[in-house]
Fold this protein.
Amino acid sequence: MKTSSELVLLGIDFGSGGCKVTAVDAGGAVLGTAQVEYPTHYEHRGWSEQDPADWYPAMCRALGRLREKGVDLGRTGAVAFDGSTHNAVLLDKAMKPLRRTIMWTDQRSTEECAELDAKYRDRIFGTAFQMPAPTWTLPQMMWLKKHEPEVIERTKHVLFVKDYVRYQVCGHAATDYIEAQGTLFFDMHAMKWSDELVSLSGLDRAALPELVRPTDMVGKVSAQAAADTGIPAGTPVVCGTSDSAVEDYGAGAVEPGDCIVKLATAGNVNVMTAEAHPYPTTLTYSHVIPGMWYTVSATNAAALCQRWFRDLFCGLEKLESEKTGVDAFELMGREAAGSPAGANGLFFHPYLQGERSPYWDPALRGSFTGMAVNSTRGDFNRALLEGVAFSLLDCYGLIEQMKLPVNRIYLIGGGAKSRLWSEIVCNVFDLPVNIPFPGDASFGSALLAGTGTGIFRNSAEAVEKCLKIDRRIEPDPALARFYRERFAVYKKIHDALAPVYAQQ
């Protein structure tokens, strides 16, 4: 029998761009990580969908890469999952997906949101603590009820990204209450599904899953999943939760006043609070630690912008990456570092998929402005990094507007690995920034796996025992003043272009 110190804890994250797996030991030391990308489909303007058939194979490939790095999955003591939040997987009576999953970045349900806002605004906000917007499950289901009614009629089970893959691993259909809070048909007061709001979606109330806690054990790895993944059959499976909740927790934001700035596919500014603070232009969720909450101000596209730019314009960097083994993003970062602060007058607005905070405007579009004949590739690369940082500062403005106290800032996400991008964010915010290690969702899920199986006494102990701060960055006063002036121009460009995009 293995002792707890010999066990491997697995966290499996299904982010908007791919699957990442992290293995840690009982002391929180990272034994290895691996990740595999999967596609998002943008077939129509404003649409964003993923194929559920892509997730399980991506997980299996990522786990295979983890084994290749020397991680002994045969020692796995528990596994927990997280995923991009409230993306509904609609299943028939045989638990087979009926269509691609509409993602949280999808903007097609603007008419349905207008209807909800006109008829049920106060009721929805009072019950679900969120305002109608295309990011939520409810208006997406209303769109399907109108345009694909046969899908809604055939839906017998509803799960969410991590829950669907976890079902394939252990055969138990459930979701956690934090995930459910993003549907817009969850009662935040009673902590259960709202029958009244569910009825607006067209879904059968019986199709919704059982609600559990993020740290609850919900099954064991099946023989088939063991053969597919290398995780031993019978390994305990812990529910897990949304990527946003678990990455805040895993990054060390476990006290009121802790603030997460996230540079992942999307960008977030999340502030931990001792009680819920519903606000019309932010999002409100429960924290992994019982009794705590967090307020979210979010931009739709952060590191997604860099991935988009890489795939569309950086063919040479991708070829060089294949030849040298140096990551294409690293090569792009080197070009950006050759451009001065301010990118020689070039601005980037990261509204590739409309925008959430602070504008909640699905009509917004991305833009480079200020180009000149002497603009370089480095200028474009740097402007992109600065534009995302400005967008996050725009989000932070809502936190200041709400007068929520901020004591510590943690910068997380794939973009935080870039020293240049981290320094830009620090100077744009003009605040000290802590960068935790590893500080991502899959690490947080691994800690949940240990908490759910009793290796850690509770979630707070898991973080206290396992989290490390990789580095701390202090702002440069001169650069901070410079970026404050640039941000004022950034805002003016948004204000000038927003009416133009509204007419398109």
